[in-house]
Amino acid sequence: MAELTALESLIEMGFPRGRAEKALALTGNQGIEAAMDWLMEHEDDPDADEPLAAPLGHTLGREPTSSEQGPESSAGEGKPILSEEERQEQTKRMLELVAQKQREREEREEREALERERQRRRQGQELSAARQRLQEDEMRRAAEERRREKAEELAARQRVREKIERDKAERAKKYGGNVGSQPSPTTEPGPVPSSPSQEPPTKREYDQCRIQVRLPDGTSLTQTFRAREQLAAVRLYVELHRGEEPGGDQDPVQLLSGFPRRAFSEADMERPLQELGLVPSAVLIVAKKCPS
């Protein structure tokens, strides 16, 4: 019995004839191992079973030459006769080779799958780390913005307090010792005539004056001032303690006497409390000052 050709060996191993012929043709008839490698690599190709186009010699109606037929055309020439046992042994070796190729392919695919999984996990970890860094940066920027706004707010409040204290100190220094006199920017200080509604001052001298201020919301403030302090000190105290109103900036306030009814002017703000008849105690009403 003659030795099996490569085509016969592939068919014996279970490959379809058309696919085996195609593998041998595409590998240049370089042997069964090359054909088996091609078959394993293209096992899942959708066109693996499609036949190849007919050679040029057949298309033109001529037989291919010995050089075109390749080594398989002379495979049976001059080859020894194999026994049935040798043929079975050869088939067994071929099957072992196919199994080995299959194992190698499975191992390769498993390694590729593991590598893809490692890459997927690595990309997921990198993405998670980047997202966490972004969140931390946003939280840090928000905290810095809050600290900056708080520092600016505290600095603004401090500047307001300092300005109020400076104004108060300047007024106290300028007018604190001039009892019963009103300064004028162009004339010498002189006595200011009392308004018709002003009560006559008491003959007793008082050092302090207790002022109760009623706010527009119904609440009241009570504070003791020096009798020689100006009415502007009372207005400053009210502006500092009346609380913040919704809507932004505070409007200036106007002070009114309870009885007899009287609205104090800006000129009255520079006059001492005892000169305005507010000593030893008085009740004032706060009304919002209409813009001029």
What are the main properties of this structure?
292 residues, alpha+beta, Ubiquitin-like (UB roll), 7 helices, 5 strands, 10% strand
SSE topology:
Blueprint: H1 6-12, H2 17-26, H3 32-41, H4 56-59, H5 66-69, H6 84-175, E1 208-214, E2 220-226, H7 231-241, E3 253-257, E4 262-263, E5 281-288
Parallel strand pairs: 1-5
Antiparallel strand pairs: 1-2, 3-4, 3-5
Helix pairs in contact: 1-2, 2-3, 3-6
In short:
Among the domains are: 6-42, no CATH class; 208-243 and 251-288, Ubiquitin-like (UB roll) (Roll).
Can you walk me through this structure?
Residues 204-286 form the UBX domain. Keywords: Coiled coil, Cytoplasm. InterPro entries: UBA, UBA-like_sf, UBA_UBXN1, Ubiquitin-like_domsf, UBX_dom. This is UBX domain-containing protein 1. The protein is α+β, with helices and mostly antiparallel strands. Among the domains are: 6-42, no CATH class; 208-243 and 251-288, Phosphatidylinositol 3-kinase Catalytic Subunit, Chain A, domain 1 (Ubiquitin-like (UB roll), Roll), CATH 3.10.20.90. Helices cover 47% and strands 10% of the residues. It is built from seven helices and five strands, in the order ααααααββαβββ. It has helices at 6-12, 17-26, 32-41, 56-59, 66-69, 84-175, 231-241, and strands at residues 208-214, 220-226, 253-257, 262-263, 281-288. The chain has a five-stranded mixed β-sheet with strand order 2-1-5-3-4, with helices on one face. Helix 2 crosses helix 3 (32-41) and helix 3 packs parallel to helix 6. It is rod-shaped, with a radius of gyration of 55 Å. It starts with 5 loop residues before the first helix and ends with a strand.
